[in-house]
Structures are given as C-alpha cells and as structure tokens.
Amino acid sequence: MITVENNNYQELTGTALKVREHIIRMSTDGGCFTGASLSAVDLIVYLYSRFLNIKKDNLDDPNRDYLFLSKGHDVPALYGTFAELGLLEKERLKNHLLLNDHIYWHPNTKIPGIEFHSGSLGHLPSVAIGVAMDLKISGGTNKVVCILGDGELNEGTCWEAMLVANAYKLDNLLFVVDRNHFQANMRTEDLIPLEPLADKFEAFGAAVKRINGHSFAELDEAFGAFPFHDGKLNVIIADTLRGKGLPSIQERADRWFCNFNADEIQQLLLELHGEHQTTLTSETLVVR
Amino acid sequence: MSYEELLTQTALANEQVIVMTAENRALVRNLPGILGKRFIDTGITEQTMIGAAAGLALRGRTPVVHALAAFLTMRAFEFVRTDVGIANLPVKLSSFIPGFLSDGNGPTHQAIEDISIMRGIPNVTVFAPADEDDLVKMLPQIWESKNPAYTRINTRKTAYVHEPFTIGKAEVIAEGSDVTILTYGLLFEQALIAVEILKSEGLSVGLINMRSLKPVDEQAILKASAQSKLVVTLEDHFLTGGLYTIVAEVLLKHRTTANVLPMALNEKWFRPTLLPSVLEHEGFTGKQIAEKILGYQTTHNQPQILTPEFSE
C-alpha cells in the first residue's frame, strides 16, 4: 500500500496507484516485467509530473527535456504514466503485445514520447551523453535524464559512459538508478555486489544523492537540487523495492516477469488497494 | 585533396557535422584546433562513442566517427546495429586500417570481416574506395546521405584518376570478354597491374572498381558475368560475406550463374608484416593475381609496392 505523505503529493500518489493498476492489467496474456517495473513507478510518475518539461504538445520541440529509459524493462511503468498523463490513449494499453499496436516488452519510438528504443542494457547512458554533448555545444538548457537498472550496472559500458561524462563535464546529465536490489534472478548483492554504490559513482567523478525512491518528498528534494555540482555528472540512487505495492510479489526473486491468470489479476487489483491478500496459483516465472 | 582536408572543408561548411574519434587521431590531427567543441574524442571507448554519436544524430547532427576498423566494427558492433542501425541515424563510420592496411599489427587488428558484418545491418550502407582520389570523390555523397554509412578509409595514393561517384554504382574501368576482375579497396592498385599483364598475354580483360558494396551495382555484376568467360572477385576480406558472397547473391537473385574465381582470405587471418610483404606472402600482388588467373608463371615485373607509414 502506498502511504500518502502529505497533501502536496496526493495527486502524485493517486497517479502512481493508477499506473500500478495498469501494470497489473498488463501482467497477463503473455505478461510483462511486473516486479521490475513496479519499483520505478513513483520515480517515473514524479519525473513526468514535476521534473521534466515533456508534454503532449512539445514532444518534437528541441527545447524539451529528454528521458532515456535504459532499463528498458521498466517500460510498463512508462506506458502507465503516459496513459495517466495524457501522452497515450488509455485504451491502447489493452493492445499490449498485440499486432495492432507497438506496445511490447521494451520501449520503442513508435510510442510518442519515447525518445529511443532500449532493451539491450548499457546502451542509453552513451546515447544520453550524445544528447547532453549536443546541448553543451549548442547552448541548450534542456535536462537529460537516463534511468538505469541496478543489474544493468554489471554492463561495462555504464562505467565507460561515466568516464566520458566526467571528461566532458556533463552537468546537464542525470543518471537515475532504480536501485531495487534485484537483478533478473536474484539479489544483486548475491551475484555481482554493487555496494558501496555511491562511492563508486563518486570515484568516477559524479555528484551523487541517495534517496528512498518511493518517497515523493525525497524525490522532490533530490531532483529539486539538480544540477548538483558545477561540471559534474549528476547521479541519483533511488532505493526502491521490486514489486512495490503488491506484498504478495514484493522483493521476490521469482517475480521479475509475471504472467498472471484473470483471477489473480482481480485479486492483485484489490491487494494494491490494501483490501486483500492474493493467493497466487499460477507458476512463478523467471525469464532468461 | 586529402581525407583530412575534405573533412575540414565539409565540417566548416556545415555546422551540423561533428567529428568524433575513439582516440584514433591519425586522420584528424588538425581538427581539434579547427573545430573546437565540434571535435569530440571519447578516448578508447568505441561503444560509448557510437552511442554518443547516435545521441548527437538524434539532435540533428551528422557525426563522422573514427576508430580502427576492427574495433569500430566488432567491439562496437551491437551499438552500431542497435543504436545506429535500428534508428537509421546518419552516423558516418570512418574505419581506419581495414583489410590488409593493418599490415604489421597482427590478427587483433585485422578487419577482414567488416564488409560482411556491416552490410548485414539493415539501413547501413557500405563503401570501399580504391585509393585517396576515389575516397575524396566518394565521401561527399556518403556524408550527405541520410543513411548510416560504413566506409573503409583508404588514403593510398595511386596515379589513377577516378570517375565521379554515385551511390550504388560501380566504376567500370574496362570491359573484356575473357576475364573481368571485380574488386574494391587497395587491391584495385594491384588489379590494374594484373590487367596489364593479362592483356600482354593476349587476353581481353575487364576491370570494375566496385566502390559501393551496399547498395551494390547489380547490373555491373550481371553484365560482367554475361560478357566474360571468367569473373574474378578480388578482395582483402574473408571469403565469407564479402564481394564473392555479394556476387553469388546477385547471380542467384537473377537466376543466372557464372564462372567465378574468388581471391580472398579463406578461413584464415593473414601473416602480419609490412604491406608489400603481406601482399607477396598472401599471393595478392598484381603479378601473382595475373598468374593465378592465367594458370602459369610469367616473366613480367611486379612494380614496387609502397610501404605505408605507421599511424594509429
């Protein structure tokens, strides 16, 4: 259950709840990355509602801000957010995985508002760097945000990109890590340990903030301080929970990708609102 | 005009051009001072350079990127395919020391599968100029096109003056009824020598500088196959996936066949040594090419082959 922190964030909390409903509804008939994307909901809702200058009518404006979703499998949270904020017709979410639309497991640019396709991890830090470099050359003041997964940080190109971002003093660029402490099949610290993560980023020259990625107040404070330091790459480590909002799948290694049956979907929608404890009967699914 | 002069002129005329390198500065030594912020050296990070080039292209820029051929095509392959190819962005890949031009470096640096893997990416166009004159005649069109492009950079000087370039068109140097040599890149120079030897041995010989390998000039291939008793594909590339394969694909597509002699590296890397010795050892001097086609030794002389200076 999402805690309402104070009145300032009621609207965001309400939006995030609806986005989680969308994700649950997409977690059937083939399924989606339910556990993975639930961790990023509050972060993505916050970014599009409060931080980024990205609206339905400025998607082609060269002065818009940029969001690159390098953790491509967080895309159900993006679809849900777009639907709630009017960038995508809600009806289209019913087309998930169907041939009549382009709503599938990873982001693609046929969905207005998605800047670049992703899915292969460790790519968009460098693409975001290219955009940030252009803005430095042309004098644009746009913000460039790139959302990374924590498992994704296994990819060497994330660190290579940080070396380059540091060399070119890209303080218009912000890497946000959806730190849900899991990679596909297990806890990050049980496979490829990342901690002390903030120290690693700082050693690469970044200015780092670490926050609770489910607290709108903390998100507000951290993003409100952007840019953090003149001439430094900005990094926010948002500590999150895989499966946030659904106790029956929260922080479970086997609930990265979920394909529920219709009965489970109905139970999970009730569970999301704190009115039920779901009994999951369908097989747990670990893809990869 | 040199490659660097052409790039300088192009970048000064067009503010959208960005010159990038993964610390391969041999071709762009003077550009940092001339272009300022429009010169970007990402260090030894071919993958990050390609991703960043895609990002710059998203903002309307035309990045011309430089790296050694082997690392540009193979270390960064998935970035080229995924970030440049899928998005069909006008990123221009300038690959340094491709094919035999990596001479003394060894197999780590040998890009002799580059044509094969780059042409396998949808949207990516592929070019291989015969020499510096060909290079500077080809690049303006390649850089102006909206497609991603891979170009084997070849700055060797020859005495040959090439025809103007059109994307998708080969340069027919000569037509012949006995044999036609199809080639690209630095072996063009040796093919010219081979043609002279073959002619003096009484053969009617054709020669085609393929130049544009994707899109390829299908009509030139079909015409040569129809009018010559023998077609030779000559390339500093693995036998798999290069010109021999392209010719096979074209002939099959048009439901025809030909007597084709492939001269390429068959399932092997070449022996690392200076370029003249590479050609000699691997059997790719003009004289060796001619004698392989003739099937006998001749008394013709092989002109001296210039050794390129080391540069990376």
Short descriptors:
heterodimer; A: about 290 residues; alpha/beta; Rossmann fold; five-stranded parallel beta sheet; two-stranded antiparallel ribbon; 7 strands; B: about 300 residues; seven-stranded mixed beta sheet; five-stranded mixed beta sheet; isoprene biosynthesis (chain B); 1-deoxy-D-xylulose-5-phosphate synthase activity (chain B); THDP-binding (chain B)
Ordered list of secondary-structure elements with their pairings:
The complex is a heterodimer of chains A (288) and B (312).
Chain A: H1 10-26, H2 34-38, H3 41-51, E1 66-69, H4 75-84, H5 124-138, E2 144-149, H6 156-167, E3 173-179, E4 182-183, E5 186-187, H7 188-191, H8 197-203, E6 207-212, H9 216-224, E7 234-239, H10 262-272
Parallel strand pairs in A: 1-2, 2-3, 3-7, 6-7
Antiparallel strand pairs in A: 4-5
Chain B: H1 3-13, E1 17-21, H2 31-35, E2 39-41, H3 46-58, E3 62-68, H4 69-75, H5 77-85, E4 92-96, H6 114-119, E5 125-127, H7 132-144, E6 149-152, E7 171-174, E8 179-183, H8 187-200, E9 205-209, E10 212-214, H9 218-227, E11 230-238, H10 243-253, E12 260-265, H11 275-282, H12 286-294
Parallel strand pairs in B: 1-2, 1-3, 3-4, 4-6, 5-6, 8-9, 8-11, 11-12
Antiparallel strand pairs in B: 5-10, 7-9
Helix pairs in contact in B: 3-5, 8-12
